[in-house]
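input
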Amino acid sequence: MGPLRCAALVLLLLLLLGTGTGTGTGGSPEPPRVVLALLARNAQHSLPHCLGALESLDFPAGNIALWCATDHNSDNTTAMLQEWLQAVGSNYHSVAWKAEEGPSSYPDELGPKHWSDKRYENLMRLKQEALSYARGLRADYILFVDTDSILTNNQTLTFLMAQNKSVVAPMLDSQTFYSNFWCGITPQGFYRRTADYFPTKNRQRRGCFAVPMVYATFLIDLRKEETAQLAFYPPHPNYTWAFDDIIVFAYSCQEAGAEVHVCNQQRFGYINVPVKAHQTLEDERVNFVHLTLEAMVDGPPMQRSRHISVPPKPLTKLGFDEIFLINLVRRPDRRRRMLESLQELEIAARVVDAVDGSTLNSSDIKVLGVDLLPGYYDPFSGRTLTKGEVGCFLSHYNIWKEIVSQGLERVLVFEDDVRFEVSFPARLQRLMEELEEARHDWDLIYLGRKQVNAEDEAPVEGVQNLVVAGYSYWTLAYAISLRGAQKLLAAKPLSKMLPVDEFLPIMYDKHPNEDYKRHFAPRDLQVFSAHPLLVYPTHYAGDSNWLSDTETSTIWDDDSKQTGWVGSQKTLRDPRDGGGYLRSASHDEF
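output
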């Protein structure tokens, strides 16, 4: 074979293997060039989580140019961003940094959450500067990210690119009906309700949908001809709508013929519900803490950047003598989530290893003095007591014994499947303070429960958001006094056991079964309930992640008889409330 023919074959082989002349022919194409634009103001509560999510994006950092701006801060945002950029900046293609160390407020704003015209104008100018920067770099894309958007899905950027849209946003979840898109807009530029919003927000329909507006976090494909005309500032010459950056941009897209899309096929991340203009940075922080707790339950959870120094939160017992967290050793995931949730809420709790009913044999049960209440059967399924219910009762019983032996006046008890309502610590402390000022005696206060009967319950005089409890299920969270624990122990319940959430209503004389009640006297436990409730279960029977060690068990004295939740109404969602989901003072989606 001649030398020329050999050379030709070698060249052909190299081309087939993708090791040609650097054009990428036959090999892996060069990843697109992206500008990531991050604008931050008074964001120290969310910035560590936002940056942690950006670090985790599954995209080469060397192909991302960072453009970061911050101004008018009254918190530690600037220092946090500087610390992060110093740690990670060299990993990226380049870094553009714009910080204004001037005043902490705009001259025409009424507070840190008030959007004045000067604030809007400054934000639009900054976004336009970022867009011009990306065009000057000849970037393929620009990704705008607000610091209240947390992209927990590390495939978000590559997913958005693959959609081949001019402007596209990942649909972000929140604590309420709020998200980062509109489905309708009026000819005057105002929000318009449509039939498509809730099916899209709730993922009853999935896909990438054309919408008139996206905001907070979105990707612009700078390679497309129509996006060359997009602008944030100044507004389009024909613009007459509200002086607001997201509406100005929506109009610009409309005039340029650049279609806008939102995609909801996957869970991409979260967006914090904005507070009102009169509210404070602390209100916004509390909202964000609640969002992090919801993410821990629904997943995937948020992760802080390891490159930002965040001092540990001081933990308190909220005025209680002790706070117990009941958890099965074989459920470490629940223990971890609850401890992380309580830490976010700045609550100091002590873990108590639950009694594992599945490990109890007949000898153990006999030694403990446990016997079934004569005639007890589950009112819905017809089964008798389960070993899981025995373990649950003993776990609470052991805490009641410790309360009495230690002389603890006020105690808080959590099970490990709790979903907290927003502002939980402040609302609980306010309730307990009002109860003390009203000088009402109390033995037990449900913080979360399932109200069995539909009738209204009497309010407690002088205490807002507290009612006299009727027949209730669940013991997922409650406050209990020393006197309450003494009354429960004095009833000697182990020798006539039934589920703990049936025992408590008997002790405050609200249980409907007279045969059960005659085994216990006196039945004078003074029991109230928070209203609205302060906690809910993380999941309900039928949910994909639902798990119950009391329902899914075996009969207390017969391991051969398996039990499940089918037929039981206890663990089903209460149709009369939101069950811990999508509850807010305002149900508006914008």
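quick obs: The longest strand covers residues 472-481.
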